[in-house]
Amino acid sequence: MRKDKEVYVFDTTALLAFIEDEEGSEYIENLLLRAEKEEIIVFIAFISLTEVFYITIQEKGESEAIRRIKLVKSLAVRTIESNEELNLMAGKLKATNRISLADAYIAAVCKEFDGILVHKDPEFERLTRLIREYRLPYKN
Questions:
Q1: Residue 73 CA to chain centroid, in angstroms?
Q2: Average pLDDT, whole number, for the chain?
Q3: Does the N terminus or the C terminus of the chain have fewer Cβ atoms within 10 A?
Q4: Which residues lie across from 132 on neighbouring strands?
Q5: What CATH number should be reported for the domain holding residue 35?
Q6: How many folded domains does the chain comprise?
């Protein structure tokens, strides 16, 4: 992909931090404002929508989960859907690193678009040699 603009990839934890106004949400909000102005590009992996949905159902119920998905879809983010290249890259990341399948897909999107991963998930520390990242403050 030809890169005219800096690319960021939000992990599910970044989306939830923004939605729940956790520490670090102002950084995400700033990136979203820049994306709205088309100064940068922000991607999310399709699997992050699934994670936001099921986590919210478990914690707050289905109606809140639906509201949150609508909110995410209204943001200046581009959702990257699954395809064969992404599947194989995620499979290789999963096979060679101790990470979840969802995180493997998110990291694959990062690698595919040479993006900066925005997250608050210590699991991604296993991939620091493979992807660029911006760590939001971890929860205690």
A1: 13
A2: 95
A3: C
A4: 116
A5: 3.40.50.1010
A6: 1
